[in-house]
């Protein structure tokens, strides 16, 4: 589809809203009158929860083509607002699908100390709604969640404490929700009400594109935005399409249209971010390394479900104003390319629904050889000799920025290689005595499953557990589990009343194996869904159906 104009000047008629007949119409547009907290404060502050709601109220009251709702409530009871924006206005998933356009879901502020996406997406929404010309609202259905973690956003504190890797704003929220859960790693275990609400919305509206707007930090690279598709190697559909088609087009357009330099998400250092690349002699850490591929992270998870999934991180060491601008530029280009590539994106969604099984990777690692060698630029930091001086925001106390840069060709590990495959069988069986903790998880993930209503004899394989290891590091109050063992030869088994059957032939087929295979490295097993049911020398509580 030919792309529409994106931004346009405001409309006095729109700005007037619903006014009595004969009332004076001000000559200022809604764009002039409705501003975000970041814009009003010259990008020294970020919008509060109340200000986000007021902003959306103002749009709604002035007749914007939006439908407003709530994903659900946060852990502290705050409503999590969403907006559906399109022309014509739609109020239901069925109406959105009837338009035969890509449904593009965008979330921001999944961590309360990453606010650039929140400010950018509010401004974009306003500018799209203001225009009386045709815009991308005539080509796409936008599902926007500007504040996915409202409790964390409201826990304001000093930047040095709450966002030590960022260059402002001076006061900002925290990463975790009110339960102390980092939503960025909750998309398998689904403990937080916010994450569950996001999944319920995704299950209902079935977006074709999923976008997570974040703020990067750590390494001092010379790129305004970094991006990634779903990095899990089982993201066969949307992950591959985003990596090979959508994101290269966005990368090229940002360079030519905005002068914004972008690069695949990552860091210097294999296991932890280093400010600059180490010497080439440090073979293990020399290079550019993508972030974690596991589905606990939202974009990796969504790629396993099939949508085109995109992570965008603004450069945390830029000023807030620069970060909001570059995030806006990225989102504008992404929306435009979703419009340009709409037929392929819609076809991707139709392909996903016809999953009929196959080999699914359930573990991965960086490949032995980097997929490419590219020239990478980074800022040179210097030792801070003035121990009395206040540290620069986002910079380690013993270092200071120099605004000088170096470049070097280095290996780029921007994807992961499968380390363990499983060939899907008919499905998985969970005996009734083990099904209690798992059934709610299956429902929250939207996995098709059935419950046995009578004893049925089936053929199964059972997994013999040789070893159970618990991680020494606690994440969100849990020590993750790794299991080793082997599948036994098939046997006849009596599946009693209440047993769960999860077929592999379903739209979320790849996700089924990733979540239910005992040796998967980010599964229900990993996050203790089978707590007390795992012991070396015994059988795992999930069987393969043959």
Can you describe this structure?
It is a single chain. By secondary structure, the chain is α+β, with helices and mostly antiparallel strands. The protein has three domains: 12-255 and 293-354, Zn peptidases (Aminopeptidase, 3-Layer(aba) Sandwich); 371-413, no CATH class; 424-545, no CATH class. 27% of the residues lie in helices and 27% in strands. Strands 1-2-4-3-7-12-8-9 form an eight-stranded mixed β-sheet, with helices on both faces. A six-stranded antiparallel β-sheet has the order 18-23-17-24-19-22, covered by helices on one side. α6 (116-130) packs across α12 (320-340) and α10 crosses α12. The longest helix has 21 residues, at 238-258. It is globular and about 70 Å long. It starts with 11 loop residues before the first helix and ends with a strand. The relative contact order is 0.12. Mean pLDDT is 92; it is low at 7-28.
């Amino acid at each position: 589809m030919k792309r529409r104009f994106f931004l346009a000047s405001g409309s006095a008629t729109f700005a007037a809203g619903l006014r009595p007949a004969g009332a004076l119409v001000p000559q200022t547009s809604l764009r002039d009158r409705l501003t975000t907290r970041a814009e009003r404060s010259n990008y020294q502050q970020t919008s509060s929860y109340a200000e986000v709601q007021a902003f959306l109220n103002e749009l709604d009251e002035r007749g914007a083509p939006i439908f407003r709702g709530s994903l659900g409530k946060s852990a502290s009871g705050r409503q999590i607002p969403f907006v559906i924006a399109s022309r014509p206005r739609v109020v239901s998933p069925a109406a959105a699908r009837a338009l035969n356009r890509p449904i593009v879901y965008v979330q921001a502020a999944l961590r309360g100390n990453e606010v650039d996406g929140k400010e950018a997406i509010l401004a974009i929404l306003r500018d799209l709604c203001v225009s009386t010309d045709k815009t991308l609202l005539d080509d796409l259905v936008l599902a926007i969640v500007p504040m996915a973690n409202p409790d964390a956003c409201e826990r304001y504190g000093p930047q040095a404490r709450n966002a030590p890797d960022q260059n402002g704003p001076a006061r900002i929220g925290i990463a975790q929700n009110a339960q102390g859960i980092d939503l960025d790693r909750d998309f398998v275990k689904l403990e937080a009400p916010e994450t569950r609400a996001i999944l319920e919305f995704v299950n209902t509206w079935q977006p074709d594109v999923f976008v997570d707007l974040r703020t990067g930090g750590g390494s001092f690279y010379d790129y305004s935005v970094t991006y990634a598709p779903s990095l899990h190697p089982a993201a066969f559909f949307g992950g591959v399409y985003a990596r090979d088609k959508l994101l290269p087009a966005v990368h090229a357009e940002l360079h030519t249209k905005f002068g914004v330099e972008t690069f695949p998400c990552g860091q210097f250092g294999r296991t932890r971010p280093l400010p600059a690349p180490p010497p080439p002699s440090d073979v293990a850490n020399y290079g550019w390394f993508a972030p974690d591929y596991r589905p606990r992270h939202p974009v990796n998870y969504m790629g396993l479900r099939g949508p085109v999934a995109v992570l965008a991180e603004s450069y945390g060491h830029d000023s807030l104003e620069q970060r909001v601008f570059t995030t806006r530029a990225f989102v504008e280009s992404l929306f435009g390319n979703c419009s340009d590539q709409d037929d392929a994106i819609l076809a991707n969604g139709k392909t996903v629904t016809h999953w009929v099984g196959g080999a699914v990777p359930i573990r991965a690692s960086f490949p032995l050889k980097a997929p490419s060698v590219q020239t990478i630029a980074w800022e040179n930091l210097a030792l801070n000799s003035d121990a009395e001086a206040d540290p620069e925001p986002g910079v380690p106390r013993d270092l200071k920025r120099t605004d000088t840069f170096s470049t070097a060709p280095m290996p780029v590990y921007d994807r992961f290689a499968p380390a363990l495959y499983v060939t899907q069988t008919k499905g998985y069986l969970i005996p009734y005595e083990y099904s209690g903790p798992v059934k709610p998880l299956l429902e929250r993930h939207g996995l098709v499953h059935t419950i046995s209503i009578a004893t049925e004899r089936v053929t199964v394989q059972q997994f013999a557990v040789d070893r159970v290891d618990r991680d020494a590091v606690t994440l969100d109050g849990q020590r993750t589990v790794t299991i080793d063992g082997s599948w036994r030869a098939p046997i006849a088994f009596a599946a009693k009343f209440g047993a769960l059957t999860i077929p592999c032939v379903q739209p979320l087929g790849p996700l089924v194996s990733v979540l239910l295979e005992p040796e998967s490295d980010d599964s229900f097993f990993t996050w203790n869904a089978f707590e007390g049911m795992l012991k070396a020398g015994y059988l795992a509580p999930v069987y393969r159906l043959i």
